[in-house]
Design brief:
The chain is mostly helical. The chain has helices at about 1-25, 45-60, 70-75, 105-110, 145-150, 165, 170-180, 250-265, 270-300, and strands at about 115-120, 130, 195, 215, 215-220, 230. It is built from 9 helices and 6 strands. Bound molecules: heme C.
Length: about 300
């Protein structure tokens, strides 16, 4: 009996818990499901999309968000956005461009970050600033959290290295968030520097105008809008980034590319993992076949 009782108590507690959560927070819109190159057991990253995605990160997102776990040389690793299996025309045979540290694109991307890496000490014992090298991690936009908050209305732009894994809905959520901003509904009053987004988890009841609320609940006929408010203004707009490969220069395309890039950043070894999984399944199927065949053979004359 005790087991049943424990089970009952647990069930009641769970029900009460989820009820409380519902009452406390608003609900946000479910992320729009997207078709991704990398979905499914055979999905792979598209190298052109990764390159465009890096361009979007570098041009827009890197002004506020760091990508601490990614080093420039990672961009030139096999499966990465700028991996080269051989050098472009004009490079001598002495260089192996499949080595990320010698990859000319990676070197040029790192070199753009002038004076942003602290190195040293030099011969006189002083630290000095130099341009980034392929071995350096991509420098973030702010020296510390306080400066980041100061520049962003006291909100902290999260590091984006693992964001596609850290949020429920993953890449669909990141895509929906950056493409899904809407004008705030007329029933809410927002502080300066706040932006309404129906996909951002929040509680819009907190920002409803007082005339629409009574005792913590919306008045009859009014409902709490989905989503929440965040300190990030819509980061993208049509045409702000020039693509070299003729892809559409729209918010949707930028968002799709940067999300694919961020997915790669969070799991650069995804393709190897999937390939290993498929090989393992093929191996197990063959093994099962052999085992079944030997079982029939061994027991063939036993009745
Ligand atoms: C002008 C600064 C700025 C730019 C540019 C910017 N962001 Fe943000 N971002 C922020 C801030 C600030 C927050 C934290 C918002 C909050 O918690 O209220 C944030 C939060 C986020 C979040 C987390 C939302 C969550 O669920 O917590 C994601 C994802 C994100 N940004 C993606 C991007 C992407 C992708 C780009 C580039 C296309 C970008 N941001 C460009 C300032 C910026």
């Amino acid at each position: 009996m005790t087991i049943t009782r424990t089970l009952m108590v647990a069930l009641v507690a769970t029900a009460a818990g989820s009820g409380a959560a519902l009452a406390a927070g608003g609900s946000e819109k479910h992320p729009e499901h997207q078709h991704w190159h990398f979905s499914g057991p055979f999905g792979k990253f598209d190298q052109n999309a990764l390159q465009r995605g890096y361009q979007v990160y570098e041009t827009v997102c890197s002004n506020c968000h760091s990508l601490d776990l990614v080093a420039f040389r990672n961009l030139g690793q096999k499966g990465g956005p700028f991996y080269l299996d051989k050098c472009p025309e004009g490079f001598g045979d002495s260089i192996d461009c499949s080595n990320p540290n010698d990859n000319p694109i990676v070197k040029a991307l790192a070199d753009k970050y002038k004076y942003q890496v602290t190195d040293g000490p030099d011969d006189s014992g002083d630290m000095f600033q130099r341009a980034a090298l392929p071995s350096d991690h991509i420098p973030g936009p702010y020296a510390n959290e306080q400066l980041a908050r100061l520049a962003n209305n006291n909100a902290l732009p999260p590091d984006l290295s693992l964001i596609t894994k850290a949020r429920s809905g993953g890449p669909d959520y990141v895509y929906s968030l950056i493409t899904g901003y809407e004008d705030a509904p007329s029933t809410v009053e927002m502080a300066a520097g706040q932006h309404y987004n129906p996909y951002f988890p929040g509680d819009m009841a907190q920002v409803m105008k007082p005339e629409y609320m009574h005792d913590g609940h919306p008045v009859e006929g009014v409902s709490v809008p989905p989503g929440g408010v965040l300190a990030m203004a819509p980061p993208l707009a049509d045409g702000i980034i020039e693509y070299g490969d003729g892809s559409p220069q729209t918010v949707e395309q930028y968002a799709k590319d940067v999300t694919e890039f961020l997915m790669w950043a969070a799991e650069p070894k995804m393709e190897a993992r999937k390939a290993l999984g498929i090989m393992t399944i093929i191996y197990l199927v063959i093994l099962a076949g052999i085992l079944y065949w030997s079982y029939r053979k061994v027991w063939a004359d036993q009745h």
